[in-house]
Specification:
The chain has eleven helices and ten strands. With about 425 residues, the protein is α+β, with helices and mostly antiparallel strands. The strands form five sheets. A two-stranded antiparallel ribbon has the order 1-3. A two-stranded antiparallel ribbon has the order 2-4.
Length: about 425
């Protein structure tokens, strides 16, 4: 059975140029400091946000986003390097399995320098407007593969179908978030706002894919397990996130996701299990984004204001990791500025599309660490929020409705 979004009879339809990763992008330095004509208090708050990160970090340049966590053994370092090469250097072509329909041709194209993505490589996800199952699964959904190899035609978004555009997030520090226990995430949840503070974060729950090995402390409920990665928290762990990305983004099948995105048939793996595991290890051993200017008076003042106006109610500054198969990330105090929960952001950020148990207006709190270096991977200009619609911190805050409306009002009043 062919995907109804595909048109195989259309010959020699060429896709737009694909952004190919250039490894030297990871050596970009940050651009000029944030400029603001607002009050000292507002500027201080902005400085705090753009320097948010973690105190546990290796001795590496603080103006470069990516890097390796400290203390890797020789064996671990070899695995990290193998994953780095697969993630940042391997570009797929028709000869090694690309497509025939796809979004991009490499992992690094969407995450240049391990940083945030650019609108030119954004994903379009579609098909589901209410919590539950996506009716377009098996019919081309949930992701649009708009590019194609010669002789094929990329997918076209069905008319009237709910959809949303997702920019790739930064991938640094993910191993630490992977090591946060479910109990810690649930500790921050308050689905029915029992404390009356206007914040009611909750986890997105989904059935885990059969290849995911759940943590011993996983909170398993009838409606599923906790998702923690992705814009809607729709990936259980980094293996889940990686295997789906190979399949949906590049059109590459694996032992974990063997169904071809074009034919919808089960195929032999086009990427090895060893490569998938190496990429997962690479993601788990990327360092926490470096914090800069942490002792500057303006940053310290901004840190206070960040809590005072209510930003820290969702972008929680501190977490403690739990156990991990990578000892270096276990039992660490981290500062990612997220609670990994879904929050209702109101009509301002409601695209009408959702995934699994989330409502269309609900989004997982994006970690803020590394935000000050984001423009380095985005061509020198900021593209913030899930689809890049905001081009400054002030503009991003202005889009915060729903549970974020009170903090937005306080911020505007500074």
């Amino acid at each position: 059975m062919n995907n109804p979004l595909h048109h195989r009879e259309m010959q020699h339809q060429h896709s737009p140029p694909i952004l190919r990763n250039q490894r030297q992008m990871s050596t970009y330095t940050s651009h000029s400091p944030l400029r603001s004509t607002a009050s000292t208090a507002l500027a201080a708050l902005a400085l705090l946000v753009v320097t948010a990160c973690n105190s546990v970090q290796p001795e590496q340049p603080d103006d470069v986003l990516d890097g390796v966590i400290p203390g890797l053994t020789q064996t671990q370092n070899r695995m990290h390097v193998a994953g780095d090469e697969a993630f940042n250097d391997e570009v797929f072509t028709a000869e090694n399995g690309l497509g025939p329909v796809f979004v991009t041709s490499s992992c690094g194209a969407c995450h240049p320098g391990d940083g945030r993505g650019h609108p030119s490589t954004a994903l379009i996800r579609f098909g589901q407007s209410t919590p539950g199952a996506n009716p377009w699964i098996g019919r081309g959904g949930p992701q649009l593969q708009q590019h194609a190899l010669p002789g094929f035609r990329g997918e076209i978004l069905p008319v009237g179908v709910p959809h949303s555009t997702f920019l790739a997030p930064i991938v640094t520090g993910l191993g630490y978030l992977d090591a946060v226990s479910d109990a810690t995430i649930l500790e921050y949840a308050d689905e029915f706002d029992s404390n009356g503070d206007g914040i009611s974060g909750r986890p997105n729950r989904l059935p885990p894919p059969p290849y995911v090995q759940l943590r011993p402390d996983s909170d398993v409920q009838p409606q599923g397990v906790i998702g923690r990665f992705g814009r809607k928290a729709s990936a259980v762990d980094l293996l889940h996130q990686t295997a789906v990305a190979y399949n949906q983004d590049i059109g590459i099948t694996s032992e974990f996701e063997p169904i071809d995105a074009h034919t919808l048939l089960t195929t032999d793996p086009e990427v090895s299990t060893a490569t998938i595991n190496a990429v997962v290890f690479y993601l788990r051993t990327l360092r926490i984004p470096p914090r800069r200017n942490s002792s500057a008076p303006s940053v310290l003042r901004g840190e206070q204001l960040f809590t005072t106006v209510g930003c820290a109610s969702c972008h929680r500054p501190t977490m403690v990791t739990s156990t991990s198969t990578i000892p270096q990330v276990a039992h660490q105090t981290i500062h990612p500025y997220t609670d990994l929960l879904l929050h209702d952001m109101g009509p301002e950020l409601d695209d009408g599309y959702t995934e699994h148990d989330a409502a269309s207006s609900e989004w997982r709190t994006t970690p803020l660490w590394g935000l000050g270096l984001s423009a380095s991977s985005q061509g020198g200009r900021l593209f913030l929020l899930h689809d890049g619609r905001a081009h400054s911190l002030e503009e991003a805050i202005d889009y915060h409705g729903g549970e974020g409306a009170m903090a937005r009002s306080r911020y505007r009043a500074l």
